[in-house]
């Protein structure tokens, strides 16, 4: 079911780099988090938001994948955590986001998918990086999530384990967003894909007063065909 970095285990920590976020803070660009369970389309919709609104899409899952290929102490910690199915340090996740945001050339805004995974990550982001404009929470019913996971797997997955993981993830997501309920926008992904993204476009229009060009259904289907496996 993809990279899991919020399993219950002791953090693997490394020394944190000093990253100056002054330039980013001075730009005061919109920042949107996309939160939700696995298989709710976070990466797909992050890519679509990038295309329609010219935002920089930063995927925490992709940041961790890229980091795991490097020859650094931090990369080794990420590889070890993934191998042992331990929780990747929130410090590492935040530092990777800080590096990505501070080096981006985008002048429109940012959408960060698969974030936050827990309440600590959300708090660290606000304290060390800046405020979030709003949070897009994508959700689906348990049966649909299980079916999507089974469809993406090459082997039959244990349904009881899937249900347990969904329950734990739902708890962590709920706690991570609890403090920010006034800026959370809940969007169901049970609807047809083009309707889901239509709802997301309306949220952006209402929250940020941005008006993208009309999306055609063929654009959405083509984007889905080209999308990587959703994390």
TrEMBL record:
One of its GO terms (biological process) is nucleobase-containing compound metabolic process. GO terms for molecular function: ATP binding; nucleobase-containing compound kinase activity. SUPFAM superfamilies: P-loop containing nucleoside triphosphate hydrolases (SSF52540). Pfam families: ADK (PF00406). Gene3D superfamilies: P-loop containing nucleotide triphosphate hydrolases (3.40.50.300). PANTHER family: NUCLEOTIDE KINASE (PTHR23359). This is Adenylate kinase. It comes from Exocentrus adspersus. The lineage of its organism: Eukaryota, Metazoa, Ecdysozoa, Arthropoda, Hexapoda.
